[in-house]
Every structure is written in structure tokens, then in C-alpha cells.
Amino acid sequence: MSTEKMAKRAGTKKTKMNAAMIWGAAIVGVFVLVAVLAPVLAPYDPYKMGIPYIKPSAEHLLGTNDVGQDLLSELIYGTRISLFIGIFTSIIVTVVSLTLSLLSGYYKGAIDKAVTAITNITMGLPDLALTILLIAYLNPGKLSVIISISLTAWTGTARILRSRVLQLCEMPFIKIEQAIGMNDFIIMIKHIVPNLKDIILSRAALSVSAAMMTEAGLSFLGLGDFGAKSWGTILHYAFYQNGVIRNYYWWYLPPILCTSLAVLGFMLLGYYGAQKAKLVKNA
Amino acid sequence: MLEINHVSVEFASENRVLAVDDISIRLPDGSRTAIVGETGSGKSVLLLSIVRLLPRNAIVRGKIELDGENLLSADKKRLQQVRGGVVSYVPQGGGASMNPLLKVGYQVGEPLIEHKNYSRSQAVEASISLMKRFNLLNEEKLARSYPHTFSGGMRQRAMVAMGIAAGPRIILADEPTKGLDDKRVRLVADSINMLKEETLLCVTHDMSFAQAVSRDICVMYAAQQVEFGKSEEILNDALHPYTRDIINAMPENGMRYDDVGFAPAHGSYLNHSDGCRYRDRCRERSEKCVIMPPVFDVNGRKVRCWKYDSAN
């Protein structure tokens, strides 16, 4: 899924994107470009070992790590993993919360009570602890990271969407659709979901950033995908191979900056997108 | 034939309210009936109970029979076939009566996709010819535009087109003229009168509109049916004091209405022990009115007033 497209859609043609959203879209766009063009952009194979601890130089723009791997290449390839996990988790989170909120908001009654109860219980769980526990039990890999993060991350979006679905279901046009005998599935897909799109898109952008943060944290703790090189993994090695103590700033600073910048990008998109949507709604 | 048989609707909340109190109306095929009454008299609730679109806390008693089949016990699948396919509900075309994100052409043709398995483009074609039937002008362009570009009268006529799209036999119209000026009301009346074969049950509080579209009129007051009869008979010679009051209050009759007194809210209408509900506003009340009058038959017309007690 292209995030730029997402950004474009979040600010529809009629409501122009504001400056914050344009910045967000630009940042996200650059990272997506880097991820896609990683093999072209990376000067070295990130797994190729060489001379360790080289300071940033013309040859190795960001220096090398403890086994002599080029850090710039690692960082560029790391963009792929971080973005992949972020976006994929966000898709799962959005689909799960959308489905649950549609079911509970549209059918109400017992289903609504059940979904609300599940949401409340999940919200009450200590999510980071649960995620760490789950990863420890599952086989290490991208998929388990994605599953573990998604398991607790859907609650906020589900709540917001449910309230909006409840609101929409009382709108005359939904009642009318029922009165002309449309089936529930079509009412939900054709009439309710399009009216939720501003919330869905901005919440999706926000969950990308949340998932990226969690992924970086997990990888830093050594719970990520060992084979893959994500920003968190670089940080993990920088810390545990004493890169931080010896102050090899070129080793630990870039992944931190990249994570923060990417998260900022998605936040700007999501947060200001949501605000924009709210403004339009209230107008 | 649609038969509404002793239907009562109660809302079971903390304060129980009886919104429709024991109403029976027979609608033979091709009949045209208007339900007239003031806001809150239970007209719309009665209409919604036919298509079973009331909120969950509504309890409907009695029988609503469509050609002998009780709709109140129909399952969900059957209801979906009936709604729009056999019985169609035409709502008031207010601002949010159409999905703001979908084009009008598609929405008007949507019942055809559901009930007649039309494709999307066929449905849009059909909706253009439907809208032509109601003289919306420039129909091809309208089909491609969004609902917010429509005026109130246009939207209402589009709603009528949408309601009849799948060729239902019975049309339930819920205040189709609310918020429209006189000229638009006439346009909507014209478009409803174009449906000659269909059975019509129309809820309105506009007497002249009721006169324009109906052959029978049912007058409701405080959840009850107070009078039922042929439209001309009712308009020329109303029996119930309430009907007489609202007819006198019509602009063309000089808005003659001297209020006897403001009627306090009767509340929940749950019991009949308070007597006639129009008593407080009635100019012809008598001692007998403290007892709830039954429905009397006066030369084939029904009226709920002690004045017509044949025992006298």
C-alpha cells in the first residue's frame, strides 16, 4: 500500500491538506522511497563484514559497526523492515477494529456488549508486557512481531470507530437503506465504511507510527527478527556491543533519528488529518 | 392488500409510552389513504411498524397482514424481500436522507440492484428514466451529481423515485412534504399521483396535501384513530370535533380556530381510564367524555366520539 496515496486521500480534494500534513506526507514519502529503492541506494551489502568501528568517512558515510558492516547500508535496509512491520501491523489493526466496530455498532445488542467487553478487557491488559511474553513464546520472526503488536493495538481505533458507526446508524440514509431492503453487508460496505474513511485513514497512520515504535523497542530488547536488519536491531547491537558506552555516536544516533523522524511523519499525517476531518465535520 | 389489525406500539423504556393505540386500517389494492394528525400522534411509528424499522425497545402488538401473511412474525430474509420489493417506504427527503458520498443516480437505482439483480450501470440507467418520470429536469446530469447539490423538493422527488424503483405494490410515504413550500408540495403531490396502480399509505400533517393524494383519510390524535372515512366526506363534513378543528384551521378556511385551552400532555397513554384524550381541547365535550369513547360506525365512517353513540 502506498502511503503517499493514503496521505492524499486523507485530505480529500475538497479539503486541502494543511502544512503539517504536507510535511508528514513528504517525510513518509522519502522513507517509502528509500525502502523501495534500498538495493539501488545502499552503497554496500549490509551483511558484508569488513573493518570494524570505522568513523564516518567518504568511503563509509556513516562508518561501520563491530563486525565491519556499513551502517548506512544497514540503515537503508532497516527502513524496509521498520516500515513493513509498521504498515502491515496498521493494516491488521485497522481491519480488525473496523470489522469489530461495524459488527457492534450496526447490530448492537448482544454483539455490541460482547465486543465492548472484549475491547475493555484488552485495554486493561498491560500491552507491552503481553507483547514481550507472546514474542518469547512464538517463533522469532517478522510475523510474530506483527501478531504480538496487533493483538493489543486495535482497541483505541475500535472504540472511536464504534461510536461513529453508532452515530451513522441513526442517520436517515442508513434507515432508508434498511427500508428499501438492502442487505446488511452492502449497507456496511457501501454506506457506512466510506463515511468512516477520515477516521480510518488518520487512525491507520497513527497506528503505523505506534507499531514502528513498538517494533524498535522490541528489536532493541533483542526480541525482534534476528535475521533481519531493522533500526531497532542496529540499536540493539550498538548497545550490547558497547557502542553506546564507547560513544560510537555514528552507530547509535542514526537509527534513533530515523525512527523519530518516521514516527513524526506518520504522526503529522494522522494527527492533523484527524483534526482536519473534525474541522470539516463541525463546519 | 395490507391489513393493519388492532396494532399497538409501546416503547419499553423507563417511562413506558404507548405510541400507537389499537389501530386498524384496511388497505385494499389500489387504495389511497392518508394518515393525518399532529406531531407525536403516532403516525410515523405506525408506518415504521409496517416495515419493522422501529427501535429495538418497541413492542408491537396486533397483526399486520400482507395478503394474509403476518409481517410482524416474518423473518429477516423475508423482510428484506418485502422492504423495497413489495412494500416501500418513502421517507422525508431531509438533508441526510441520502448518503452524501454516493451519487444520486446510483442511490436511486439501488433497490433494483438488491431486488432485481441489476448491474450498477443498468441501475443508473433505470434511475435516470425514473427521475424523468417525476420531471426532475436534466436527469442525466443529476444522476451524476451528489445529493448536497439537490434542493429539498428535488431530493424529495428523488426519494419517491427511489422508493418505487423496484416496483413495489404498496408505498408508505412518511411526511413527504415536510419543510417544502406550497409549490413544491404540489410537485410532490403530482409525482405521488402519477403512481396510479400502487396502494398508497401516506402520513402527513398537511390537510390540503392529504386531500390532493388520498381517497381515504385516517385522522389520528394521541395515538388513537379518531376518525376514518372518504376524503371528501371528511373534508366537507367532519364528524369528530378534532377533525373539524383542524379543517377549520386550514389557511383556505380562514384559519378559524379558537383554542379552548392548552391541552396538558396526557403522558404515556397507557390506560383508557382518563377518558377521551381530546376532552381538554374539545368544544363539544360533555360529562360522558370522562369515559374513553369506543369507535362508532356512522354510515360506514368510523369515529371515536360519544356524540355518535347510537344508543342516544
TrEMBL record, chain A:
Record's bilayer topology term: Multi-pass membrane protein
Presence of the UniProt keyword Cell membrane in the record: yes
Compartments where found: Cell membrane
InterPro entries: BP-dependent_transpt_permease, MetI-like, MetI-like_sf, OppC_N
Family matches, as Pfam families: BPD_transp_1 (PF00528), OppC_N (PF12911)
Keywords: Cell membrane, Membrane, Transmembrane, Transmembrane helix, Transport
Domain ABC transmembrane type-1: start-end pairs: 79-270
SUPFAM superfamilies to which the protein is assigned, alphabetical: MetI-like
GO biological process, one term: transmembrane transport
Superkingdom of this protein's organism: Bacteria
Record field: transmembrane: 20-42, 81-103, 115-137, 143-161, 249-272
Cellular component annotations (GO), alphabetically ordered: plasma membrane
Family stated for the protein in its record: Belongs to the binding-protein-dependent transport system permease family.
Protein name: Peptide/nickel transport system permease protein
Protein's organism: Sporobacter termitidis DSM 10068
From TrEMBL, chain B:
Compartments, record wording: Cell membrane
GO MF annotation, one: ATP hydrolysis activity
InterPro entries reported in the protein's UniProt record: AAA+_ATPase, ABC_Ni/Peptide_Import, ABC_transporter-like_ATP-bd, ABC_transporter-like_CS, Oligopep_ABC_C, P-loop_NTPase
Main location: membrane
Pfam families membership: ABC_tran, oligo_HPY
Keyword hit for Transport: yes
GO cellular component, one term: plasma membrane
UniProt-listed SMART domains: AAA (SM00382)
Assigned EC number: 7.2.2.11
Catalytic activity: Ni(2+)(out) + ATP + H2O = Ni(2+)(in) + ADP + phosphate + H(+)
GO biological process, one term: peptide transport
Ranges where the ABC transporter domain occurs: 4-247
Topology term for the membrane: Peripheral membrane protein
Keyword Ribosomal protein: no
Keywords, sorted A to Z: ATP-binding, Cell membrane, Ion transport, Membrane, Nickel, Nickel transport, Nucleotide-binding, Translocase, Transport
Top enzyme class: translocase
Subunit organization: The complex is composed of two ATP-binding proteins (NikD and NikE), two transmembrane proteins (NikB and NikC) and a solute-binding protein (NikA).
NCBIfam families xref list: oligo_HPY (TIGR01727)
Record-stated family: Belongs to the ABC transporter superfamily.
Protein name, per record: Nickel import system ATP-binding protein NikD
Provenance organism: Sporobacter termitidis DSM 10068
